[in-house]
Amino acid sequence: MFLTRIGSSYYHLHPDNRTLVWDRLPMILTPVILWLFKSGPDGNLFYWGVIAAYALSKAAEYFDAGLYDLFGAVSGHTLKHSIGAVAPYLFYRALRQKEKIIRAA
Questions:
Q1: Closest by Cα among 56, 75, 74 to 65
Q2: Which of 6, 18, 34, 54 has the most neighbouring CB atoms within 10 Å?
Q3: How far apart are CA 94 and CA 86, in angstroms?
Q4: How many CA atoms lie within 13 Å of 16's alpha carbon, on the beta-carbon side?
Q5: Residue 83 CB coordination number (10 Å)
Q6: Beta-carbon contacts of residue 38 (< 8 Å; ≥ 6 apart)
């Protein structure tokens, strides 16, 4: 999430196709990191929930205008940020779940 923040900030300072890579790269790498560094069954559901929230937010962004036409006052861009805000919460829940398991051991 920290790297995503840095990449996104860099993109928004100078939005163009060259800087867009830095906005998206940390988000694209998250599934790879989860795949390479398996942590066992104790929190993966939450981690994959983060990926799902990202995928849903990207879908909302893609269908921005259509969603605005459908809902009127809410655009896909608004939904993108709302759904995207769920990802850090799910990551927090994963950390709390892991902490409970460690304390119980």
A1: 75
A2: 54
A3: 12
A4: 2
A5: 20
A6: 44
Assign 3-class secondary structure to 16-46. Answer: CHHHHHHHHHHHHHHHHHHHHCCCCCCCHHH
**Cα three-residue angle 18-34-58, rounded to 5 degrees:** 45
The band of 101, judged by pLDDT with boundaries at 50, 70 and 90, is: confident
Chain centroid offset of residue 64 CA? 17
Q: Answer whether 64's CB lies under 8 Å from 37's CB.
A: no
pTM of the model: 0.64
Which pLDDT band, with edges at 50, 70 and 90, does 39 fall under? low
Q: Tens of pLDDT along 49-99?
A: 888 998 898 899 899 999 999 988 889 888 988 898 888 888 888 888 878
* Position 9 confidence tier, pLDDT thresholds 50, 70, 90: confident
Measure the CA–CA gap between 51 and 87, rounded to whole angstroms. 8
